[in-house]
Amino acid sequence: MTDATAFERTGELTGEARFGDYVQLLKPRVMSLVVFTALVGLLVAPGPVHPFLGFAAILFIALGAGASGALNMWYDADIDRVMRRTARRPVPAGLVEPGEALALGIALSGIAVVMLGLAANWVAAAWLAFTIFFYAVVYTIWLKRLTPQNIVIGGAAGAFPPVIGWAAATGGTSLEAWLMFALIFLWTPPHFWALALFMKEDYHRAGVPMLTVTHGRRATRAHILAYTVVLAVFALGAGFTGLGGPAYWTAAVLLNAWFLLGAARIWRRDEAAAEADGYAVEKRFFRFSLLYLFLHFGALLADAALGGAGLV
Q: Which are the contacts of 184, defined by CB distance < 8 A and separation ≥ 6?
Protein backbone atom coordinates (compact mmCIF):
# COMPACT_ATOMS: atom_id res chain seq x y z
CA MET A 1 0.00 0.00 0.00
CA THR A 2 1.43 3.42 -0.96
CA ASP A 3 1.70 6.25 1.55
CA ALA A 4 -0.94 8.22 -0.37
CA THR A 5 -3.36 5.28 -0.40
CA ALA A 6 -2.81 4.53 3.26
CA PHE A 7 -3.44 8.12 4.29
CA GLU A 8 -6.56 8.29 2.14
CA ARG A 9 -7.96 5.26 3.96
CA THR A 10 -6.81 5.99 7.51
CA GLY A 11 -6.19 9.72 7.70
CA GLU A 12 -3.05 8.99 9.72
CA LEU A 13 0.61 9.76 9.11
CA THR A 14 2.34 6.93 7.30
CA GLY A 15 5.98 7.92 7.68
CA GLU A 16 8.46 10.35 9.22
CA ALA A 17 8.67 13.71 7.48
CA ARG A 18 11.98 14.61 5.89
CA PHE A 19 13.41 18.04 5.13
CA GLY A 20 12.46 17.60 1.48
CA ASP A 21 8.82 17.10 2.44
CA TYR A 22 8.74 20.52 4.10
CA VAL A 23 10.40 22.03 1.04
CA GLN A 24 7.65 20.51 -1.12
CA LEU A 25 5.07 22.24 1.07
CA LEU A 26 6.40 25.52 -0.28
CA LYS A 27 5.62 24.54 -3.91
CA PRO A 28 9.16 25.13 -5.21
CA ARG A 29 8.17 25.00 -8.87
CA VAL A 30 5.60 27.74 -8.37
CA MET A 31 8.10 29.61 -6.20
CA SER A 32 10.64 29.58 -9.02
CA LEU A 33 8.20 31.40 -11.31
CA VAL A 34 7.39 33.88 -8.55
CA VAL A 35 11.08 34.55 -7.92
CA PHE A 36 11.82 35.04 -11.61
CA THR A 37 8.94 37.45 -12.31
CA ALA A 38 9.61 39.38 -9.09
CA LEU A 39 13.29 39.64 -10.03
CA VAL A 40 12.33 41.03 -13.44
CA GLY A 41 10.04 43.57 -11.80
CA LEU A 42 12.88 44.59 -9.49
CA LEU A 43 15.50 44.91 -12.25
CA VAL A 44 13.43 46.66 -14.93
CA ALA A 45 12.21 49.31 -12.46
CA PRO A 46 13.85 52.72 -12.92
CA GLY A 47 16.85 53.55 -10.78
CA PRO A 48 19.68 51.44 -9.38
CA VAL A 49 19.07 48.76 -6.77
CA HIS A 50 21.77 47.83 -4.26
CA PRO A 51 22.65 44.14 -4.77
CA PHE A 52 22.13 43.30 -1.10
CA LEU A 53 18.71 44.99 -1.05
CA GLY A 54 17.76 43.17 -4.23
CA PHE A 55 18.86 39.80 -2.86
CA ALA A 56 17.01 40.36 0.41
CA ALA A 57 13.84 41.48 -1.36
CA ILE A 58 13.77 38.43 -3.63
CA LEU A 59 14.52 36.11 -0.71
CA PHE A 60 11.58 37.40 1.32
CA ILE A 61 9.24 37.45 -1.69
CA ALA A 62 10.20 33.79 -2.21
CA LEU A 63 9.44 33.02 1.44
CA GLY A 64 6.06 34.71 1.05
CA ALA A 65 5.32 32.57 -2.00
CA GLY A 66 6.32 29.47 -0.05
CA ALA A 67 4.07 30.50 2.81
CA SER A 68 1.14 30.77 0.40
CA GLY A 69 1.92 27.30 -0.92
CA ALA A 70 2.00 25.78 2.56
CA LEU A 71 -1.32 27.39 3.50
CA ASN A 72 -2.84 26.16 0.25
CA MET A 73 -1.65 22.59 0.89
CA TRP A 74 -2.99 22.70 4.44
CA TYR A 75 -6.49 23.72 3.39
CA ASP A 76 -6.68 21.70 0.17
CA ALA A 77 -5.44 18.39 1.61
CA ASP A 78 -8.88 16.81 1.24
CA ILE A 79 -9.18 17.48 -2.48
CA ASP A 80 -5.47 16.94 -3.14
CA ARG A 81 -5.91 13.44 -1.76
CA VAL A 82 -8.35 12.40 -4.51
CA MET A 83 -6.55 14.00 -7.47
CA ARG A 84 -3.83 12.02 -9.22
CA ARG A 85 -1.81 15.17 -9.88
CA THR A 86 -1.64 16.13 -6.20
CA ALA A 87 -2.08 12.92 -4.20
CA ARG A 88 1.65 12.64 -3.47
CA ARG A 89 1.93 16.07 -1.92
CA PRO A 90 3.26 15.91 1.67
CA VAL A 91 -0.03 16.43 3.53
CA PRO A 92 -2.34 14.12 1.54
CA ALA A 93 0.47 11.54 1.35
CA GLY A 94 0.57 11.47 5.15
CA LEU A 95 4.14 12.74 5.44
CA VAL A 96 3.39 16.07 7.13
CA GLU A 97 0.61 16.81 9.60
CA PRO A 98 -1.92 19.44 8.46
CA GLY A 99 -1.22 21.47 11.59
CA GLU A 100 2.46 21.61 10.74
CA ALA A 101 1.70 22.92 7.26
CA LEU A 102 -0.56 25.59 8.75
CA ALA A 103 2.00 26.62 11.35
CA LEU A 104 4.77 26.79 8.75
CA GLY A 105 2.63 28.88 6.42
CA ILE A 106 1.67 31.38 9.13
CA ALA A 107 5.23 31.65 10.47
CA LEU A 108 6.78 32.19 7.04
CA SER A 109 4.10 34.74 6.16
CA GLY A 110 4.96 36.85 9.17
CA ILE A 111 8.70 36.56 8.64
CA ALA A 112 8.48 37.37 4.93
CA VAL A 113 6.28 40.45 5.30
CA VAL A 114 8.14 41.99 8.25
CA MET A 115 11.58 41.34 6.82
CA LEU A 116 10.64 42.68 3.37
CA GLY A 117 9.38 45.84 5.04
CA LEU A 118 12.62 46.24 6.98
CA ALA A 119 14.91 45.33 4.07
CA ALA A 120 13.12 47.26 1.31
CA ASN A 121 10.02 49.31 2.17
CA TRP A 122 6.56 48.89 3.63
CA VAL A 123 4.77 49.44 0.33
CA ALA A 124 6.34 46.25 -1.04
CA ALA A 125 5.65 44.49 2.28
CA ALA A 126 1.99 45.53 2.16
CA TRP A 127 1.61 44.14 -1.37
CA LEU A 128 3.26 40.89 -0.28
CA ALA A 129 0.90 40.60 2.70
CA PHE A 130 -2.09 41.25 0.44
CA THR A 131 -0.87 38.64 -2.06
CA ILE A 132 -0.53 35.95 0.63
CA PHE A 133 -3.98 36.80 2.00
CA PHE A 134 -5.51 36.82 -1.47
CA TYR A 135 -4.10 33.43 -2.43
CA ALA A 136 -4.64 31.67 0.88
CA VAL A 137 -8.00 33.14 1.90
CA VAL A 138 -9.80 34.74 -1.06
CA TYR A 139 -8.78 32.08 -3.60
CA THR A 140 -8.02 28.86 -1.68
CA ILE A 141 -10.55 29.05 1.16
CA TRP A 142 -13.34 31.09 -0.39
CA LEU A 143 -13.58 31.00 -4.19
CA LYS A 144 -11.73 27.91 -5.44
CA ARG A 145 -14.63 25.62 -4.49
CA LEU A 146 -17.34 28.17 -5.19
CA THR A 147 -17.05 29.41 -8.77
CA PRO A 148 -15.83 28.19 -12.18
CA GLN A 149 -14.02 31.54 -12.44
CA ASN A 150 -11.76 30.35 -9.61
CA ILE A 151 -8.60 30.24 -11.69
CA VAL A 152 -9.28 33.69 -13.17
CA ILE A 153 -9.53 35.19 -9.69
CA GLY A 154 -6.68 33.10 -8.34
CA GLY A 155 -4.50 34.30 -11.19
CA ALA A 156 -4.31 37.70 -9.52
CA ALA A 157 -2.25 36.26 -6.68
CA GLY A 158 0.28 34.82 -9.09
CA ALA A 159 0.40 38.12 -10.99
CA PHE A 160 1.54 40.30 -8.07
CA PRO A 161 5.25 39.30 -7.79
CA PRO A 162 6.56 41.73 -10.47
CA VAL A 163 4.51 44.49 -8.82
CA ILE A 164 6.10 43.63 -5.47
CA GLY A 165 9.56 43.58 -7.06
CA TRP A 166 8.93 46.97 -8.68
CA ALA A 167 7.67 48.37 -5.37
CA ALA A 168 10.74 47.01 -3.54
CA ALA A 169 12.96 48.93 -5.99
CA THR A 170 10.98 52.18 -6.20
CA GLY A 171 8.72 52.40 -3.16
CA GLY A 172 5.62 52.52 -5.38
CA THR A 173 3.98 51.13 -8.51
CA SER A 174 3.44 52.39 -12.05
CA LEU A 175 1.74 51.55 -15.34
CA GLU A 176 4.65 49.30 -16.32
CA ALA A 177 4.31 47.28 -13.12
CA TRP A 178 0.61 46.78 -13.71
CA LEU A 179 1.18 45.75 -17.31
CA MET A 180 3.47 42.99 -16.05
CA PHE A 181 0.68 42.08 -13.64
CA ALA A 182 -1.80 41.96 -16.54
CA LEU A 183 0.50 39.73 -18.56
CA ILE A 184 0.49 37.04 -15.85
CA PHE A 185 -3.14 37.58 -14.88
CA LEU A 186 -4.42 37.09 -18.44
CA TRP A 187 -2.00 34.21 -19.11
CA THR A 188 -3.19 32.18 -16.12
CA PRO A 189 -6.68 31.12 -17.38
CA PRO A 190 -5.59 29.68 -20.76
CA HIS A 191 -2.62 28.02 -19.05
CA PHE A 192 -4.70 26.25 -16.39
CA TRP A 193 -7.77 25.63 -18.55
CA ALA A 194 -5.53 23.80 -21.03
CA LEU A 195 -4.48 21.60 -18.09
CA ALA A 196 -8.12 21.18 -17.06
CA LEU A 197 -9.03 19.89 -20.52
CA PHE A 198 -6.97 16.73 -20.00
CA MET A 199 -7.37 16.59 -16.20
CA LYS A 200 -11.14 17.10 -16.10
CA GLU A 201 -11.87 13.86 -14.25
CA ASP A 202 -9.50 14.80 -11.44
CA TYR A 203 -11.36 18.04 -10.81
CA HIS A 204 -14.70 16.25 -11.12
CA ARG A 205 -13.73 13.68 -8.47
CA ALA A 206 -12.48 16.41 -6.16
CA GLY A 207 -15.64 18.48 -6.55
CA VAL A 208 -13.74 21.54 -7.76
CA PRO A 209 -15.97 23.61 -10.08
CA MET A 210 -13.36 24.06 -12.78
CA LEU A 211 -14.82 25.40 -16.02
CA THR A 212 -14.46 21.99 -17.70
CA VAL A 213 -16.64 20.46 -14.96
CA THR A 214 -19.36 23.13 -14.83
CA HIS A 215 -19.57 24.17 -18.49
CA GLY A 216 -17.83 21.35 -20.36
CA ARG A 217 -14.79 21.15 -22.58
CA ARG A 218 -16.43 22.94 -25.54
CA ALA A 219 -17.05 26.11 -23.53
CA THR A 220 -13.58 25.86 -21.98
CA ARG A 221 -12.00 25.81 -25.43
CA ALA A 222 -13.86 29.00 -26.36
CA HIS A 223 -12.74 30.67 -23.13
CA ILE A 224 -9.11 29.74 -23.83
CA LEU A 225 -9.28 31.41 -27.24
CA ALA A 226 -11.01 34.54 -25.89
CA TYR A 227 -8.49 35.05 -23.09
CA THR A 228 -5.58 34.40 -25.45
CA VAL A 229 -6.79 37.16 -27.79
CA VAL A 230 -7.03 39.64 -24.91
CA LEU A 231 -3.65 38.48 -23.59
CA ALA A 232 -2.03 39.14 -26.99
CA VAL A 233 -3.44 42.67 -27.04
CA PHE A 234 -1.99 43.47 -23.61
CA ALA A 235 1.31 41.74 -24.34
CA LEU A 236 1.83 43.73 -27.53
CA GLY A 237 0.53 46.90 -25.90
CA ALA A 238 3.22 46.66 -23.23
CA GLY A 239 5.77 47.14 -25.99
CA PHE A 240 4.59 50.74 -26.46
CA THR A 241 5.55 51.63 -22.88
CA GLY A 242 8.89 51.96 -21.17
CA LEU A 243 9.01 48.16 -21.01
CA GLY A 244 9.32 47.85 -24.79
CA GLY A 245 12.60 47.18 -26.54
CA PRO A 246 13.96 45.07 -29.40
CA ALA A 247 14.11 41.85 -27.38
CA TYR A 248 10.61 42.30 -25.98
CA TRP A 249 9.08 43.23 -29.34
CA THR A 250 10.65 40.22 -31.04
CA ALA A 251 9.47 37.86 -28.29
CA ALA A 252 5.98 39.38 -28.06
CA VAL A 253 5.25 39.20 -31.79
CA LEU A 254 6.52 35.66 -32.26
CA LEU A 255 5.19 34.18 -29.02
CA ASN A 256 1.73 35.70 -29.29
CA ALA A 257 1.36 34.64 -32.92
CA TRP A 258 2.23 31.08 -31.90
CA PHE A 259 0.01 31.20 -28.80
CA LEU A 260 -2.96 32.50 -30.82
CA LEU A 261 -2.52 29.75 -33.39
CA GLY A 262 -2.40 27.16 -30.61
CA ALA A 263 -5.54 28.54 -28.94
CA ALA A 264 -7.38 28.59 -32.28
CA ARG A 265 -6.39 25.00 -32.91
CA ILE A 266 -7.67 23.99 -29.46
CA TRP A 267 -10.93 25.84 -30.14
CA ARG A 268 -11.46 23.96 -33.41
CA ARG A 269 -10.69 20.55 -31.87
CA ASP A 270 -13.33 17.84 -31.97
CA GLU A 271 -13.76 16.19 -28.57
CA ALA A 272 -13.71 12.68 -29.99
CA ALA A 273 -10.46 13.37 -31.84
CA ALA A 274 -8.93 15.01 -28.78
CA GLU A 275 -9.78 12.01 -26.61
CA ALA A 276 -8.48 9.62 -29.24
CA ASP A 277 -5.02 11.19 -29.33
CA GLY A 278 -4.84 11.62 -25.54
CA TYR A 279 -5.28 15.41 -25.69
CA ALA A 280 -1.84 15.75 -27.28
CA VAL A 281 -2.54 19.23 -28.68
CA GLU A 282 -3.81 20.49 -25.33
CA LYS A 283 -0.77 19.07 -23.54
CA ARG A 284 1.59 20.79 -26.01
CA PHE A 285 -0.25 24.08 -25.55
CA PHE A 286 0.02 23.73 -21.77
CA ARG A 287 3.77 23.08 -21.94
CA PHE A 288 4.32 25.93 -24.38
CA SER A 289 2.40 28.30 -22.11
CA LEU A 290 5.16 27.95 -19.51
CA LEU A 291 7.77 28.87 -22.10
CA TYR A 292 5.56 31.74 -23.29
CA LEU A 293 5.59 33.48 -19.92
CA PHE A 294 9.26 32.77 -19.19
CA LEU A 295 10.39 34.19 -22.55
CA HIS A 296 8.27 37.34 -22.21
CA PHE A 297 9.84 38.15 -18.86
CA GLY A 298 13.25 37.05 -20.08
CA ALA A 299 12.92 39.54 -22.95
CA LEU A 300 12.06 42.31 -20.50
CA LEU A 301 15.20 41.45 -18.57
CA ALA A 302 17.29 41.41 -21.76
CA ASP A 303 16.05 44.86 -22.78
CA ALA A 304 16.81 46.22 -19.30
CA ALA A 305 20.35 44.83 -19.59
CA LEU A 306 20.78 46.32 -23.08
CA GLY A 307 19.49 49.65 -21.83
CA GLY A 308 21.85 49.59 -18.87
CA ALA A 309 24.73 48.95 -21.25
CA GLY A 310 23.64 51.88 -23.42
CA LEU A 311 22.85 49.63 -26.40
CA VAL A 312 19.19 50.65 -26.78
A: 37, 155, 158, 159, 161, 162, 293
